[in-house]
Amino acid sequence: MFMVDFIVSAKNLNHYFGKQILKSQILFNINLQIKHGEIVTMTGPSGSGKTTLLSLIGGLRSVQKGSLKFLNQELYGASNDRLVQIRRHIGYIFQSHNLLNFLTARQNVQISLELDNNISKWEAQKKAEAMLDAVKLGNRINYYPCELSGGQKQRVAIARALVNHPKLVLADEPTAALDSKSGRDIVNLMQLLAKEQNCAILMVTHDTRILDISDRIIHIEDGRLVKEVC
Ligand SMILES: Nc1ncnc2c1ncn2[C@@H]1O[C@H](COP(=O)(O)OP(=O)(O)OP(=O)(O)O)[C@@H](O)[C@H]1O
């Protein structure tokens, strides 16, 4: 049977912002491969290009130069429709959870399922509830974000990211707004759920206390991947 080796494979990936004399290069010849189910942490100083790289891998920006493959599909030159399809296989967790304040925890998780037309509202509701149960918020499903703590909101964001059983989760400083205990709980939960679903994680963090969940740590400086820490 044909096996896809890597979930993400970047080769000589370059990226620029600005035009003409204002054009500046942000990423330089990035080579990176991520395996199925692997947890990779990316560290690096502010402005080194971490979020830019994450957004390219997530199909949220167009690839300008070099090759970037997601599940063996080339993103360079991919149509918008193709990028939308690819995004369905990816879960996103941001620093500030980005929950919709006028929706309950369940509805916030449910809408990411309802983007998939093949699922009934009833089924989406049941799956959203099961996922919230998995992140230990079964007793908070009808709460609005303003009624939840920072850690609980981030757990809703994890439930929303994982409910579609994505192949990859991209997490941009998921613990930045949390105290150390809540931050630890969040990454433990991400690790557990990802291992259960064989979902790879690429996580950007400045938080050195959570590096131990990583299978591999990569470091970026001035737009270049400089070393693999382990
Ligand atoms: N839309 C944009 N237009 C122009 N320059 C940008 C844009 N987005 C980011 N940059 C620049 O690209 C560089 C890399 O930014 P990026 O957000 O990827 O860094 P980062 O490593 O994620 O930083 P931080 O840790 O502070 O979030 C920075 O110099 C930033 O100013």
Automatic annotation (TrEMBL):
<dbReference type="GO" id="GO:0005524">
    <property type="term" value="F:ATP binding"/>
</dbReference>
<dbReference type="InterPro" id="IPR027417">
    <property type="entry name" value="P-loop_NTPase"/>
</dbReference>
<dbReference type="InterPro" id="IPR017911">
    <property type="entry name" value="MacB-like_ATP-bd"/>
</dbReference>
<dbReference type="InterPro" id="IPR014324">
    <property type="entry name" value="ABC_heterocyst_DevA"/>
</dbReference>
<dbReference type="Pfam" id="PF00005">
    <property type="entry name" value="ABC_tran"/>
</dbReference>
<dbReference type="InterPro" id="IPR017871">
    <property type="entry name" value="ABC_transporter-like_CS"/>
</dbReference>
<comment type="similarity">
    <text>Belongs to the ABC transporter superfamily.</text>
</comment>
<dbReference type="InterPro" id="IPR003593">
    <property type="entry name" value="AAA+_ATPase"/>
</dbReference>
<dbReference type="InterPro" id="IPR003439">
    <property type="entry name" value="ABC_transporter-like_ATP-bd"/>
</dbReference>
<keyword id="KW-0067">ATP-binding</keyword>
<protein>
    <submittedName>
        <fullName>DevA family ABC transporter ATP-binding protein</fullName>
    </submittedName>
</protein>
<keyword id="KW-0813">Transport</keyword>
<feature type="domain" description="ABC transporter">
    <location>
        <begin position="8"/>
        <end position="229"/>
    </location>
</feature>
<keyword id="KW-0547">Nucleotide-binding</keyword>
